[in-house]
Each structure stands twice: as C-alpha cells, then as structure tokens.
Amino acid sequence: MTGCLVRPAPCRVAVTGPSVGRCVTVLCSQRPGWDAAAVDAMDALDASAQRVVELVGQVRPEQWDNPTPCTEWNVRTLVGHLIAGMRGYCELLNGAPAAELRSTLEHQSEAVGTDPVATCESAVRSVRAAFAEPGALERIVHHAYDIPGSQLLAFRIADNAVHSWDLATAIGVEPGLDEQLAEFVYGLLAPRAQSGALYATGWIAAPTRPLPEGATPLEQLIHLVGR
C-alpha cells in the first residue's frame, strides 16, 4: 500500500454523501488537508483490502481462537466475516437479494478455509473486479435496503478498514492503516453517525466515551464506531 491514496488524474468514482459527483484533481504534495472528494474510492478499496490480506498473513496458528473487539467473534470468525462479506457483495452486485448476503454471513466462520491468505486474496480480487465492472457503481443493489453500488463500495471500504483495526488489536500488531484512508472512511461514516443511521441497525455501536483530545484520524474513526 502506498502512502498516498490520491491520484494525479481526476477520480473515477463518486461516493454517496456530500462528495457525490465531485471529482477533484489533487497531488499528495499539493494537499494541505483532507478532502474526501480527492480520494479515488477504488484506490481506497485497494488500500483497505491490501491491509486486510497483510493482517491475515500475520495471524499465528495459536491466535485463531483469540477474542476480538467484536465481542461475539474470535479471530477466525472475524476473518471469515471479511471474506464472506466480500463474496456476498459480489452476489449483491450480480443482482442477488439481501437474503443471500445474510445467508452467506451466517456461515462466515467457515469461510476462512485451510489457506486463509489465499482465500482472502481470492475474495479481494473477486470483489474488486465486481466493483470495477462498467455500470456497477450506478446499479441498484439490495443490501439492508436498496442502495446504489457506489454506496455498497463505501460500505466495503469501511468494513475493511474498521475490521483491520479489530484484527490487528486481536493479534497484537499495529493496525498499519494509511492516515488518509482512516480520514476517508471517517468522512463516509460521520454523516450517517450524526443522523443516527449508522447505529440504527444495531450492527455498529455508538461511542460510549468522550473522544480524547488530539486524537489521530484512526482514533477518531475507531471512536465513531464504538470501539
């Protein structure tokens, strides 16, 4: 993963939210602060997915049963959730109903297989290809409610980033998430947190403690999702 998620050419993907339809040409050396519209969403997907694969490769054999910040999941189930989620998003982009994603996630603990890294890499390639298909980001998909593919992409990036932190915490390594990626995901989730929509399903917990002064972008993101 490179240290810059901003391309020297105009971005190709608009993400739902305040930055919809706004594509800004920005170089890292010219970027004084964060602007979500300057980050290409497919680059953010690649960066977040790469970190997932790297972390899966760092899980030692004795750590698969470790607890995680997702209190109902151990490391195996958490990694399985990421893999199953990527597979499920491929299904949604191909027109599957929301029930199919739920069914896939019900078996997430089995998704890791015998070669976790290879299985994860395969899921990463598949979901990347699905989002890159012409028209995929404009297509309506059946998630918890009907949304455009661009919003599903935002969900995928956020899931990768937040659960990378969960996995890193569970196995005792540095999260290693790019600061711009953390800021980008925060920008995706913050409006939904402010409206309450982020917490309405119960999948994400609201913060229970104040945000520390001087928090880093990653700490702000993790606080937002109740960690």
Quick overview of this protein structure:
The chain is 50% helix and 3% strand.
Output the number of helix runs.
8
What is the radius of gyration? 17 Å
Query: What is the H-and-E element order?
Result: HHHHEEHHHH
Distance between the termini: 25 Å
> Can you tell me the residue ranges where pLDDT is under 50 for at least 5 consecutive residues?
1-37
In CATH, the homologous superfamily goes by the name dinb family like domain
Task: Give a quick set of tags describing it.
Four Helix Bundle (Hemerythrin (Met), subunit A); 50% helix; two-stranded antiparallel sheet; 227 residues; globular; mainly alpha
Q: What do you see in this structure?
A:
There is one protein chain. This protein is an all-alpha fold. The chain has one domain (41-224): Up-down Bundle (Four Helix Bundle (Hemerythrin (Met), subunit A)), CATH 1.20.120. It is built from eight helices and two strands, in the order ααααββαααα. A two-stranded antiparallel ribbon has the order 1-2. Helix 1 (41-57) runs antiparallel to helix 4, helix 5 packs across helix 6 (179-195) and helix 6 runs parallel beside helix 8 (217-224). It is globular, with a radius of gyration of 17 Å. Residues 1-37 have low confidence and may be disordered.
